[in-house]
Design a protein that fits this description.
The chain is α+β, with helices and mostly antiparallel strands and 466 residues long. The chain has 3 domains: 164 residues, FAD/NAD(P)-binding domain; 141 residues, Polyamine Oxidase, Chain A, domain 2 (Alpha-Beta Complex), CATH 3.90.660.10; 120 residues, no CATH class. The protein contains 15 helices and 22 strands. The longest helix is centred in the C-terminal third of the chain and has 22 residues.
């Protein structure tokens, strides 16, 4: 159930082990939260990623399938936020180039500190760290740090006693946050609760070791679907699940008809945020509780297909700017004249998601004009597209979050999330130690496949149907 990357990988692996598989997907397409939008019907039409748009090269599961499915020749470096010297940041005085921003960032930081007299190196590193938090973290986390001078002061006090030379930002590069936190793991304990866990996302998102797939990230789920001997039924919405001891019965609605199917085993990769709205029978109380409890963060993206890539005339060739306000991040993809004008998470994503699409697009256009006034030129925006994952019927959230939870709480949540209900198994990024990433979804699918295989072959050595 679910033809996102977790469901498709699981079907692919079960097929490979000789099982017969059906895949049910409620939406009209495969891919789930991998969603490449094309501004036109032809394969070469300009496109933008309204869902997952990058893979860290250290994510071995995702990279394995990129290689196995013949996509390695499409891998391209992904230039991310705070990685390009010519891109913009919003400062107290307005837009400023990253290469010229450090004096303004340090000045802003000093005005927040409870005392003076810090080393220049400490101020520069802290200024970049707080910039990364401001650009990426949700509203309440930004407030916990940036709105608390004593908290910032404790961070800079600790930095003042450290050798920061290898990690400092330079005009042509961002600070080496990944290396810093690997070499100084105790530093994260100085961060406010929640941000100490979210810092891993900040480090990953500002790391240079990110890649994307030329032609669209949806090549990954499409290749998986094409490789299946399984039937993939799109526009088939699961509305009921009964996890009986000997089998699983599902109710599916298609073309206003309700279809009832019985399977020896079922793997559910539906996000729990959507599973809450499905009729669930024969579930343990603990399982029902975790389905209702797991927290999802909204995410919203807004893209413009422009008449021309006007940002190139401004010296910008890729990467992303921190455009602040209600739009937060703006990316300049390599795919022609398409601009990912706004990428938000948390409260700001929810606020955009509640708007009607036309109002959302116009709001983003007006906000972006503060950095790129060319966007207001008549005819500059040829078409707009957006995706508010928190308000999407099939996902009802951008990704799972476990901010503010300790290791024990996370382990308990993972165990309950992945625990099978009789012959009903579970996978998806919400069942993974690495939520919010393609790699986590794949890892959970592989673990579920092993669980089904072991359970089925141990109990039913003759019958091999899943």
């Amino acid at each position: 159930m679910g033809a996102g990357v977790a469901g498709l990988v699981a079907a692919y692996e079960l097929n490979g082990r000789g099982y017969d598989v059906d895949v049910y997907e409620a939406s009209p397409r495969v891919g789930g939260r991998i969603h490449t939008h094309r501004f036109g019907p032809e394969p070469a039409a300009p496109y933008v990623e309204l869902g997952a748009m990058r893979i860290p090269t250290k994510h071995r599961h995702a990279m394995r399938y990129v290689r196995e499915l013949g996509l390695i020749d499409r891998v391209r470096p992904f230039r991310t936020l705070l990685s390009e010297a010519s891109n913009y940041l919003i400062s107290e005085s307005g837009p400023v180039r990253l290469s010229e921003a450090m004096p303004a960032l340090v000045g802003s930081l000093q005005r927040r500190l409870p005392r003076s007299g810090y080393r220049e190196a400490s101020l520069r590193f802290a200024a970049f760290l707080t910039l990364a938090v401001e650009a990426i973290a949700p509203v309440y986390m930004r407030g916990q740090l940036l709105g608390n001078p004593m908290q910032i002061g404790r961070l800079v006090d600790r930095l003042d006693g450290m050798d920061l030379g290898p990690y400092l930002p330079e005009p042509d590069r961002s600070a080496r946050l990944a290396e810093f936190f690997v070499d100084n793991p105790g530093f994260r304990s100085l961060l406010p609760l929640g941000l100490d866990g979210f810092i891993d996302d900040i480090v990953t998102e500002t790391n240079a070791d990110l890649v994307s797939l030329e032609g669209g990230m949806d090549a990954l789920p499409r290749r998986l679907a094409d490789a299946l001997t399984a039937a993939v039924w799109v526009d088939h919405k699961v509305v009921g699940i009964r996890a009986r001891k000997q089998d699983v019965v599902i109710e599916v609605v298609h073309a206003k008809r309700t279809i009832v199917r019985r399977y020896d085993y079922v793997l559910c990769t539906i996000p729990f945020s959507a599973l809450r709205h499905i009729r669930l029978c024969d579930f343990d109380p603990d399982k029902l509780a975790i389905v209702r409890k797991i927290e999802y963060c909204p995410a919203t993206k807004v893209a413009f297909y422009c008449r021309e890539p006007f940002w190139r005339n401004d010296g910008i060739s890729g990467g992303a700017s921190f455009t602040g306000g209600g739009i937060r991040q703006t990316y300049y993809p390599d795919s022609g004249s398409v601009l990912l004008a706004s990428y938000t998470i948390g409260e700001e994503a929810d606020r955009l998601g509640r708007m009607k699409p036309a109002d959302r697009h116009e709001y983003v256009r007006q906000q972006l004009a503060k950095v790129h006034p060319q966007i207001l030129e008549p005819g500059m925006v040829r078409a707009a597209a957006s995706q508010a994952w928190g308000h999407d019927e099939w996902s009802r959230g951008g990704c799972t979050v476990r901010w503010g939870k300790d290791d024990g709480q996370i382990a308990d949540e993972l165990e309950l999330a992945a625990a099978p209900q009789n012959h009903l198994f579970f996978a998806g990024e919400h069942c993974s130690k690495n939520p919010a990433w393609i790699d986590g979804a794949i890892e959970s699918a592989l673990e579920a496949v092993d669980g089904i295989d072991a359970d089925l072959t141990g109990s039913y050595p003759v019958r091999r149907s899943a």
